[in-house]
Structure formats: structure tokens, C-alpha cells
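Following up on my earlier thread - several people asked me to post the actual chain instead of describing it. Fair enough. Here it is, all 314 residues.
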Amino acid sequence: MYRNKKIALVIPAYNEEKLISPTLESVPEIVDKIYVIDDGSKDSMASVVRERAKIDSRIELIQHSKNMGVGQAVITGYEKSTKDNYDITVVVGGDNQMPLEQITDFLDPLIDGKADYAKGNRFIVEASVFEDMPRIRLIGNSIISFLTKIASGYYKIYDMVDGYTAITRRAIELINWDKAWKRYGYPMDFLIRLNAYGLRVVDIPRRAIYMPGERQSQIKSIPYALKVSPMVVRGFFWRLNKRYLFRDFHPLVFSYYLGIGFFTAGIIYGVYLIYRQITGWGVSGPKAIICAILLIIGIQFLLFAMLFDMYQEQ
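Reply from S.P.:
Thanks for posting it. Predicted structure:
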């Protein structure tokens, strides 16, 4: 227990027989319950967890009969911790990448009522993380973070893919997790859903751990970014309708749709004019002006919409 709040720790893990033990050994005493979600592992991880549970009675192993995705593993942990009446649920990976000595940094904003969800940010602790993180992962992270800022409406946070998080029981109960993204990319989808329900999110500076010689990440950054981008785009439109049309109303939703419409029309018309120029038909001045007007109006609508969306985050 920490500051009179019952704390649960969820550890989604897949084939982590080597690193799950040091992860469990580093869990501080303030954590009341540890749920290890074995997402259909094919190695001996479950046996390692059971042996550790003989020493630490807080540990409970929950096994999926097949691999359902890390997002589903987290949701399984959410549902179990909520059912068992824990006030705050922290999530870390089973690969010993996340410094559990910093767990109170994630808990304090939630207990103080400043946020409903806290997430790690490895980029505001020290500049060296940009050098320590593999370049290809840094590029993929940057692409996804930029897209997710727009899609989620949380423009002031970064490192969207970080899985070190904490969430209140109220937030877990408020969101319908049945439609949530179940596999890699779940942190971005979760942020979109949090914003749709008007929940507050805070970035927590946290130390990054990269151990030489160990398999740390199963994600190949660029293919990962390409795979989850359509999900992020779909989530953006879902969030706009959910938050600003159905749950509440704000005219920024029209600014977004008008901006997308005008900008898209300008792009299509511009391509048409380029085709005319290439094929020798030529392009008149008025046609070029119309194309420019469409693009400018679209950009203005989009910028105003993003500005209003950012104000909603306050």
C-alpha cells in the first residue's frame, strides 16, 4: 500500500523466461499485488514465475491459452485488478527495461488528483537517451509520436510507445476495453480512448534501460510504424465523433472535417493541374489560384482545429 491506496502491478510477458525473474525481484514493497499475464508463452516462463511465487506471495500468474497480443494482456490485468478492488494499476514489461524504483513518480500524480493516467517518457530525463536508443527505433518512435499527438489530442506528451504506465480504477471502469487494440501499438490506442472520455494524462520522466546482449524489443520500428498508422488514423476519427459529437459538443470537429475536406480537394486538384501541364494542356492562372485557395483554407481550418483541440487538454 502506498499513501493509503492499494497498488497492483500488471506485467504482460511473452517468452521472457530469462528476464522475468529479475523483473519480479525488483518490485518494491509498496506494491500489494503482482499479476503476471503469460500471453501464451512457449518457453519456461510460467515455471519461473511459479517458483518466484513461492517466495513472493503477492505474485499471481494468469495464463492465456494462446497469444492474444500485449494489449489484451494489459486489459486482462486491468480487469483483474479492478475486480480485486485495487485503486491504481501500474503496468511494466517483463523484460526488465523499466526501473521500478521510480514507481512512486507514476503513483503520486494519480493519488494527488492531477491525472487519471501516467505514462513514461524516456526522452526528458537526459539527452543521452537519443544516443542510447537504436537509431531505427528512434525514427519509428518519432513518427508514431507525431501521429498519436494529433490522433489522441494529447499534444504536450511524447514517447507514445512507452509501456510504463499507471492508471486509476475510475479510468479503467469508465472505458469500454472490448474495442481496444489488442496487439503492439496498444499504448497509442489507449491514449486515444482516454482522451475520448476526457481523462487527464501526464508524462513521467523515467530512466531508459538498454542492456547489451539482451533481446529487449520484439518491435521492428519502421514496419511497426507502418502497421499501426492506419489504426491511429481510424482512432483519430473515432475520438472526434465520440468526444465532440456524442459525449459532448465542440465546433472544432467541423473545423477538422472542413480542413481535411478542403486540403484533400486542393491536393487532388493540384495533381490534376500537374497532369494537365505535363500533357501539354496547360494551366491557367485562375485554376492555379483556386488550387492554392483550397490548400490554404484547408490548412487554416486544420490549424484552428488543432489549436482548439490542444486547449481542451488544459
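The beta strands are 7-13, 33-39, 59-64, 88-91, 117-121, 165-168, 201-205. That should answer part of your original question.
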